[in-house]
Design a protein that fits this description.
The protein is mainly β. The protein has 2 helices and 11 strands, in the order H-E-E-E-E-E-E-E-E-E-E-E-H. A 6-stranded antiparallel β-barrel has the order 3-4-5-6-8-11.
Length: 132
Amino acid sequence: MKGWGRFIGMVFVGLLALPVYGAEYQGRSVDGRRLSAKVYSYETGGVFDAQVVFQRKWATLYFVNGSEQKVRLRRSRITNPAEIYGWSVGLLNIGGIFNVGIAKDSPNNLEPSGPRPFERMWRISLKDADLQ
């Protein structure tokens, strides 16, 4: 039993040593910076002015009306600042562009039990001037 405890301790210490990558653009971290953006909601079809703060694989969208939305990013490495995709809480990303909706069963059998495919998907388009 003593050997297993040591093994688990070594694995835990090894996991702590793994690097934690934040959101980055052109090799530079953008974590913690408040950046101006246009965001597109696939649920409503609306385009909104917002400010975005990245934190690892998450982005918090701050809208001009004072509301905010937390979005899980598809990738933390930003290759095209005009096309950053993410999903708000409620969808589970299972790799690439595929995701699974997590919802309670509907009380009415005529309604779908989960969200529509792109219901909670967001596209973030950063303004280039903020990235310099």
